[in-house]
Amino acid sequence: MAPNASDDSATAADAEELRAARRRKAARYVVPATVVGVAAATIGLVPALADSGDPDLPKISAQELVEKIAASDVQQLSGTVKITTDLGLPDLGGLANSLGSAAGPSGSGDGSSADPSAKLTELASGTHTLRVAADGENKQKVSLLEDAAEYSLIHNGKDVWGYDSKSNSVFHTTASEREGKQKDELPATPKDLAEDALKAADKTTSITVEGTAQVAGRDAYRLVIKPKDENTTVGQITVAVDAKTGLPLKFTLTPASGGAAVVDAGFTQVSFARPAASTFDFTPPKGAKVEEGDAGDASKAPGHAEDFGKEQRKHLDKGSAELGKNGPEGLNVIGDGWDSIATFDTGGKGVPSGSEVGGDAGSFLDSLGDKVSGKFGEGTVFKTRLINALITDDGKVYVGAVTKDALVKAADAGK
């Protein structure tokens, strides 16, 4: 008996629907994979983009997680760190070009472009990719990847080398016993930043565990640090903590004003295997200009705990009164915690107006500053998305991770 025509039509329709369903299902996988692949090829962060979903981890209290960070003792690692800093500064435009020309070809004045201090300011804005490696206290390496060039800082035993491939210049110094410690020589990793933030954990701070995340292929807890002070410009800090090792894998600081993070530093690749010994070997290339530095210069390494993000980091520490030991003479700190304000007297006049300076420099000054007045007199507030500074017309300076109103109030109280 011949099959019914309507049955044939139904069968064909069912088959076509099945094929269509399969195509739709395949598209759900192929299209996102294609998009991710293009993005990954563009920015070179395949491992980070491959992470998805929140891992199911055992519950942990904030106190336990903080203790886990403190107990973390990772001695060997290698990986890639992406650091983005967005203080909201205006484009320097012609001013930057003028400064660059005045500084010479390397942009570092008379010094070597391989001197670590010459590279510090580059990490204060924009997005940068670092390759890092460590093998105990005496072997670390960090490489700042640039367009068609690379800057490397290598610590191997008593030697510290800086090498700038663009200018083929080398900076060499020796590390003292103190500077040879791993905590002083590693770059500004999420661990460095997280430990400083946790120092502000007092009655002015809320610390909670808010879910989980996956960073660089690792399961992590999300530790959230929120200031209770209303005058601070810090919104919150989120630290992704490796569930197994306790190592902070990602650090994100968002401002109270909202928007993009001010500081976002995280691993996109990480391995806890011992790096090859050759990773830390360095011999100056043929024809390279070698500059010898003082032993003390080794502490100027990019991301050193006392240098990288200095203005941001010092106000995360409730003991910021210690600044008085190394800061300008007569420096004092008003208050404590997140809304602390450092103040000192320059002994001179305030900042000239843009019209007085003229040119690109004058325009830059005007774009940064807001004229303010109060019982203290008059002055200018220079602002970023995190750090604000009031310079009065009689030369007094008030600076902190606080609002403009808080600075004016502090200046009024100081009269």
Describe what this molecule looks like in 3D.
This protein is α+β, with helices and mostly antiparallel strands and 415 residues long. It has 2 domains: 62-312, outer membrane lipoprotein receptor (LolB), chain A (Clam), CATH 2.50.20.10; 320-413, TATA-Binding Protein (2-Layer Sandwich), CATH 3.30.310. It has 12 helices and 18 strands. The strands form 2 sheets. A 12-stranded mixed β-sheet has the order 7-8-9-10-11-1-2-3-4-5-6-12. Strands 13-14-18-17-16-15 form a 6-stranded antiparallel β-sheet. A hairpin with a 6-residue loop joins strand 13 (332-334) and strand 14 (341-345). The radius of gyration is 26 Å and the shape is globular. The model is unreliable at 1-10, 21-52, 92-110, 177-187 and 295-327 (pLDDT under 50).
Structure in a nutshell:
The chain is an alpha+beta fold.
